[in-house]
Design a protein that fits this description.
Blueprint lengths: L10 H13 L3 E4 L6 E4 L3 H19 L5 H15 L10 E5 L6 E4 L3 E5 H4 L5 H16 L2 H5 L40 H17 L5 H16 L7 H5 L6 H11 L10 H8 L3 E2 L7 E3 L2 E4 L4 E4 L5 E4 L4 E4 L5 E7 L5 H9 L4 E2 L4 E5 L2 E12 L2 E12 L2 E10 L3 H12 L3 E2 L3 H4 L4 E7 L4 E2 H8 L9 H7 L7 E2 L4 E6 L5
Parallel strand pairs: 3-5
Antiparallel strand pairs: 1-2, 4-5, 6-19, 7-8, 8-9, 9-18, 10-11, 11-12, 12-17, 13-15, 14-15, 15-16, 16-17, 19-22, 20-21
Helix pairs in contact: 1-2, 3-5, 5-7, 5-8, 7-10, 8-10
The protein binds zinc ion (ZN).
């Protein structure tokens, strides 16, 4: 499927993982990282398979951040650390995903992900090492295998009947859009164990565990500031932050006196200079009620007041009551007819078929359909639009009983798809980190005012203070490197 834009693993992935989990044989095994005997549902071979099957789907749905140098840097650090653990032979894989949220997560079997969003909030290599160590620890201590059942299934509470209807996934593959990633919500004891092991791993590489405490503090601040309107997902996947800073200090102290290497602040900031910051508008943004997609060069109106969720593989809107949806995907099929056949040939889907038409000058087919699901009948409209060498599939639906209330709004949305021609919209650029060197001692406030003199600041002084792990009135010494943000989002 052609990418549209980012966040979240497809619902089908979740089911695949759940299925794998319960097919697994029950076995009691010794955990080499902790020496504990643990009741585990699945073998390490199965964990590796789970990870290797989910990894391409994470890559497809979140996107891999397109910077080979940065990928190699993170991967190099992670791989070196993983080699020092109790499971050096796992197929260790470290990826920077193209997601602005502040998050890091691990899959069973050796897969670790950090978002570009969390990288923008670190201020040294030691901080990155601390988070990598923690995520590696969830894998070596095999927390995923025991906790996978506690996945956070939904954040938006999508109440649509077809969400749990596997048959419908084929035509509305992202009906479960609310399900952000396969979040493993770890228990308090898992978090404590990952902190303890992670501290050991980072210290073993020569990094001072104090750096992990700075990260914890930053995550707390991001959470408090509401981080661009969203909580850092890291807190959702890694709950129970209370007392962790004290515990990390205790774990570090338990290692005895250590000689730590420099934290590599300037080197790290050099690595992230210029990375994309915040949502990437090239992959879609809302402006004046319209959804613009500069990369794929289209505009679309969703029904007024509906929530729009922009993912790599679909754009999904949900009614206020969460009982109706309009979803845009790119069909795998090469023609309107083939894409429509895909819909109408799905078991349980009925409809009169497609009427050929044009939508805003583009070749298109429109048709209604109904689906019998275990949760009751669903009615909807579909439009297939040929544009720029792709077949766009727009599907709107609700429970049959509510369809009359939504039919008109959905039709208007489906018929609003049109080419994006506005030059300014097409040329939109994301915001980027800009690492600046302080020429002479100054406060962060003063540096901020000087940097944005004559232009509208991209972000607030509070945001700049947060990503630099400073306060607005912090004193900056000559020669110090400070992260700023250049560019601005469409407004
Ligand atoms: Zn954790």
């Amino acid at each position: 499927m052609t990418t549209i834009t980012a966040r979240g693993v497809r619902h089908s992935t979740m089911w695949a993982l759940v299925t794998i989990l319960f097919v697994g044989l029950t076995a009691c095994m010794t955990n080499p990282a902790t020496g504990e005997r643990r009741f585990s549902l699945i073998s390490m071979e199965q964990e590796i398979r789970m990870g290797s099957e989910a990894d391409p789907q994470i890559a497809a749905s979140m996107g891999i951040y397109p910077d080979d140098g940065l990928q190699a840097y993170v991967s190099g650090l992670g791989t070196a650390m993983a080699a020092t653990t109790e499971w050096p032979e796992l197929p260790w894989t470290f990826r920077v995903v193209d997601d602005y949220t502040v998050n890091a997560f691990a899959l069973p079997g050796g897969y670790v992900y950090v978002t570009r969003g969390i990288l923008a909030h670190f201020n040294s290599e030691a901080q990155l090492a601390g988070v990598l160590g923690h995520e590696i620890a969830h894998i070596t201590a095999r927390h995923g295998a025991t906790r996978l059942t506690r996945m956070q299934m939904t954040q938006l509470g999508v109440g649509l009947a077809m969400v749990l209807e596997p048959r419908f996934q084929r035509i509305a593959p992202l009906a479960g859009a609310g399900m952000q990633l396969l979040f493993l919500s770890f228990s308090r004891s898992d978090e404590q164990e990952a902190d303890e092991l992670g501290v050991r791993y980072m210290a073993g590489m020569g990094y001072d565990p104090e750096a992990l405490i700075s990260v914890m503090e930053t995550l707390r601040r991001v959470s408090e500031a509401g981080g661009q309107g969203r909580l850092p997902e890291w807190l959702a996947t890694h709950p129970h932050p209370e007392n962790r800073q004290d515990d990390i200090r205790a774990h570090a102290a338990a290692l005895g006196p250590q000689e730590y290497r420099p934290e590599r602040r300037d080197e790290y900031l050099g690595r992230i200079d210029g990375i994309v910051y915040g949502p990437d508008p090239r992959e879609g943004y809302m402006l004046g009620g319209s959804f613009h997609h500069p990369t794929l060069r289209f505009v679309l109106e969703f029904p007024q007041g509906w929530t729009v969720i922009n993912q790599k593989q679909a754009v999904i809107s949900l009614s206020g009551e969460r009982d109706a949806s309009v979803q845009l995907t790119v069909s795998d099929e090469a023609s309107i007819d083939a894409a429509a056949r895909n819909l109408y040939d799905t078991e349980g889907v009925d409809g009169p078929g497609l009427s050929r038409t044009r939508i805003n000058g583009l070749p298109a087919g429109i048709g209604s359909f109904s689906v019998a699901t275990e949760q009751g009948p669903i009615e909807g409209s579909a439009a297939f639009i040929e544009y720029d060498g792709r077949i766009y599939q727009l599907i709107g639906y609700s429970a049959a009983g509510n369809w009359d209330a939504y039919r008109r709004q959905v039709a208007q949305s489906l018929e609003s798809f049109r080419p994006l021609t506005d030059r300014r919209a097409l040329a939109v650029e994301p915001m980027r980190l800009d690492v600046t060197r302080i020429a002479s001692a100054i406060s962060l406030n003063q540096h901020y005012d000087a940097y944005y003199r004559g232009v509208r600041p991209a972000v607030s002084i509070e945001q700049i203070a947060l990503i630099n792990q400073l306060e607005p009135d912090s004193r900056l010494e000559t020669g110090m490197l400070i992260k700023m943000v250049r560019g601005s989002l469409p407004r």
